[in-house]
Amino acid sequence: MLDIFERNVETWIDKVKDEHWQAGHNWYKHARQFCEHLSSETGLPLENVAGIVAALSPQVSWEVNLYSAESVVRYAQIDKRYTGYYANVEKAYQCLTAHPLKVLRGPKVLAFYHNILSVESECVTIDTHIARVLFNTLTLTEEQIRFIFSKKGNTLAQQCLLRVAKQKKVNAVALQAALWLCVREYTQNRIIKDQLDLYLK
């Protein structure tokens, strides 16, 4: 399975454009800057702001993630446009007062949290867009989604991206972000073409 994943990552790397690489290199830097700005304006520690962003991230677009997190940080309430899970809203509220590592669960959310705080993190964020890379398909099956979000699947996925990044001599977090941006472009084009709303972060 690891070898298959690596071959599929190589296939997608060939699709990554220069602008994806450039934006991917700065993606988490900009995410951290957003959190730093909110932290400095509100007095909430950076770790808590990053925890709120991470808690609200599953199955929402990055844009929704940002304005929803800002609403929680500034007003202690979720933006009415938030489209994610209520359980994650509860975790975001908890991150207002508790350290995020006492609240957050799941390898995807925890990796996202650590990546925002440091691009040198040993974690790689594995979400549905990266799953599309690993399985080399824009349309994931329920079985593939279950596997990639299982402990075994996440471990294999992280190993894969870390190995490919080492071979390519690039930062693994930047590689993940560049691939994510590339896949997002493909899925957005698919939505426009097929009028489907199946492709979320």
How would you summarize this macromolecular structure in one to three sentences?
The protein has helices spanning about 1-15, 20-40, 45-55, 60-75, 85-95, 105-115, 130-135, 140-150, 150-170, 170-195. It is mainly α and about 200 residues long. Helix 1 (about 1-15) packs across helix 9 and helix 7 (about 130-135) crosses helix 10.
Give the secondary structure arrangement, pairings included.
Blueprint: H1 2-13, H2 18-42, H3 46-55, H4 62-75, H5 86-94, H6 107-117, H7 128-135, H8 142-148, H9 151-168, H10 172-194
Features:
single chain, mainly alpha, disordered C terminus
Summarize the structure in words:
The chain is mainly alpha-helical and 201 residues long. It is 68% helix and 0% strand. It is built from ten helices and no strands. The chain has helices spanning 2-13, 18-42, 46-55, 62-75, 86-94, 107-117, 128-135, 142-148, 151-168, 172-194. The protein is globular, with a radius of gyration of 16 Å.
Proportion of beta-strand residues:
under 5%
The strand count comes to: 0
Number of continuous helical runs: 10
The general outline is globular
